[in-house]
Amino acid sequence: MIRLNVNNEEIETDAEPDTALLWVLREHLGLTGTKFGCGAGMCGACTVHIDGTPSFSCLTSIDSLEGAKVTTIEGLSPDGGHPLQRAWVAEQVPQCGYCQSGQIMRAAALLAENDSPERAEILDYMSPNLCRCGTYNRIVKAVQRAAREV
Fold first, then answer.
1. Which of 8, 10, 100, 114 is 20–30 Å from 134 (CA)?
2. Where is each 2Fe-2S ferredoxin-type domain found (predicted)?
C-alpha cells in the first residue's frame, strides 16, 4: 500500500508500484479531470501539482509519491471558483478543452510563484503545455486576468 494526499484527502492505493500517477488518479480514484495526452511527458495534458510543483502525472510512478501531496484540477477548486477557472471562462479559452486542466494547473503554479507575470514570462512558463487548438493568446489573457484577482 502506498499512502499519499490527493486533493487534501489521505488515500492508500494498492496499485502496482510502477503504475503512473495518471492511472491511479483516473482509474483508482475516479478523478478524470486529469487527461491522458501523449503518455511521454511531451504535451502537458496530465499536469498536476506534486508538493506544489507542476508535474506530468503520466511520467510519475506511484512508488515515488509515498507521503506526497498531489493536487489535481478537481482539488484546485471543487466549485470552479478559482480565479484561473473563472478567467478561463471569461476569456473563452477552451475550444476542444482537452488540454485545459493541465494548462490551468501549470498556470496556477506560475501564479503561486509570480503573482504578476509579464507576457514573456507566461509564455515561457506555460511552454511545456501544448494546445492543439492554438488558443495560446487566450491562455495568456486568462493568466493575466487571474493575476489581477490573486
1. 114
2. 1-76
